[in-house]
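Readers of this paper often ask what the protein records in our data store actually look like. An entry from our holdings is shown next, in its original layout:
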Amino acid sequence: MAVPTFTKPTLEGMCVNLRPLVESDAEITFQWRISKRAALLNHGAQTVEQQAKWISSRPQTEFNFIIETKEQRPIGMLSLIAIDRANRRGESARFLIGDENAAKGIPAAVEAMKLLYQLAFDELKLERIYGTVASDNSLMIKWQKYLGMKEEGRLRRHYFINDRYQDAVCLGLLADEYRTTSLPKMSALIAAGARVRG
């Protein structure tokens, strides 16, 4: 079942917003994708022009966001894709804080994930969010588990990154786990970060 098409929302948080990714974001997102911070992500576009075409070709069924500060400074990206309304599931993907310096002092990563989870579980009424992370990306795996995701298995030698094969670590979060574990933890981290910032 296809997700109905409609104007994508801007999701507003205390410290960051998620606004829809647009073609004019091609240059900055391309720079993020070729940076060392993105070394453990899937290979992306090879030029700014290719990145612009990739952005414009995203299907209406995807939610592709730019993470930006309340001052509207872009600092990263995040997506909700492969939404299956019949089975009530979707995939969190393309998560990257591209401008680490601009994100310092604010709980940007945590709040971005919280906003995406609220969209998935509260607005779209999904039952399950899942994703895969390259096995070398141990910090991301540890962080996602800390926020409540469970490791559900591995796809062996699934990615060819940095000139070698890596497993894809499969992670998942159910709606009740989000409400009982992830949401309280994320809310507390965001509140603490906002107090420090203020």
